[in-house]
Write a structure and sequence with these properties.
The protein has one domain (about 5-20, about 75-340): Metal-dependent hydrolases (TIM Barrel, Alpha-Beta Barrel), CATH 3.20.20.140. It contains 17 helices and 8 strands. It is of the alpha/beta class. The structure holds adenine and zinc ion.
């Protein structure tokens, strides 16, 4: 029996847009609060989930930064990351490039080394435990100053072997990519790859700036690019990947419903679109759930599911050898599924 959910689970996938702090489930939040003797303003896991009704990006960020307050020790960061990787493995994810926000922790007087060591250890263990290859992307909080971002980059330099790239996240509107041009110049000079959130709530102009001023290799979200045909033409011509997060876009009211999402419009325009989960503990689903809900709401044919998985492999920073092997696995899985 052909079952689309079965195909979604079996196809090798890469997740390229995942904030590790956004994978902190309320259950683990309570466990860590207890372990670290922190009082939460919520009485129960249900109370926490009930508070996850967002009207825009900022209304989410406020509660997301509050939730991260339970992360104190290296073990806390390890446990959160390991829990995400288990769920990713269950969804057939084979490669991850995850974000973390060092400033969310250093600004609470958690030393830089604590978060990155816990996350790095879990990423390393995932190779053995799940066969998942993993890379780490350090994100600067764009609502903070460019000087603070530069200091964060300098603090990261002793850990450069653990960090594949740098990114830009948090409150988008009012904090254009141009604010971080010097930081990104320095990051590239130090050998880091670069990505940036742009065109989530911000205008297409922010995507142009991320390309022209920050020289990013991928755009995170980028869904507002379809408002600007010249921008779409450029993204198509340069094969710039867009790490789209459908359930996030619904939860943060970037689109009204999943059926209104421009995912298929972007694919049909020839854009290199990938599907990702962003902050799955807050937005109602990990990568598999994003695929399954898109398949239903947008009536995706199996060929589109395959194309999205292949796009994720193409857009990733994995080695060419692994890329070739996973592309072949996708073809083999699809053929086996069709012949069932
Ligand atoms: N940080 C965590 N999730 C984010 C998102 N969707 N946009 C910007 N910053 C974020
Ligand atoms: Zn994001």
């Amino acid at each position: 029996m052909k079952n689309l959910n079965d195909l979604i689970q079996r196809l090798p996938k890469a997740e390229l847009h995942l904030h590790i702090e956004g994978s902190l489930e309320p259950e683990l939040m309570f466990e860590l609060a207890q372990r670290n003797h922190i009082d939460l303003r919520f009485k129960s896991v249900e109370d926490v989930r009930a508070a996850y009704a967002f009207s825009d990006l900022q209304s989410f960020l406020d509660i997301y930064y509050e939730g991260a307050g339970v992360l104190i020790t290296e073990r806390d960061f390890y446990d959160m990351t390991a829990a995400y990787l288990q769920r990713a493995a269950d969804d057939g994810v084979r490669h991850v490039e995850i974000f973390y926000d060092p400033q969310t922790h250093t600004d609470r007087n958690i030393p830089f080394q604590v978060a990155i060591t816990g996350i790095h250890r879990a990423l390393t263990d995932a190779q053995e435990a799940h066969g998942i290859s993993a890379q780490l992307i350090l994100c600067f909080l764009r609502h903070l100053s460019a000087a603070a971002a530069m200091s964060t980059l300098e603090a990261a330099l002793p850990y450069r072997d653990w960090i594949a790239g740098v990114g830009l996240d948090s409150s988008e509107v009012g904090h254009p990519p141009a604010k971080f041009q010097a930081v990104f110049d320095r990051a590239r000079a130090e050998g880091f790859k670069t990505v940036a959130h742009a065109g989530e709530e911000g205008p297409p102009a922010y995507i142009w700036e991320a390309l022209d001023l920050l020289h990013v290799t991928r755009i995170d979200h980028g869904v507002r690019c379809t408002e600007d045909p010249k921008l779409v033409a450029r993204l198509v011509a340069e094969r710039v990947p867009l790490t789209v997060c459908p359930l996030s876009n619904v939860k943060l009211c970037v689109v009204n419903t999943l059926a209104d999402h421009n995912l298929v419009q972007m694919m049909d325009a020839g854009l290199l679109v990938t599907v990702n989960s962003d902050d799955p503990a807050y937005f109602g689903g990990y990568l598999g759930e994003n695929f399954r809900q898109c398949a239903t709401a947008l009536q995706l044919p199996p060929e589109h599911i395959v194309a999205l998985c292949k796009n994720s492999i193409e857009a990733s920073w994995m080695t060419d050898g692994r890329r070739r092997a996973l592309m072949q696995e996708i073809d083999a899985e699809f053929n086996a599924w069709k012949s069932r």
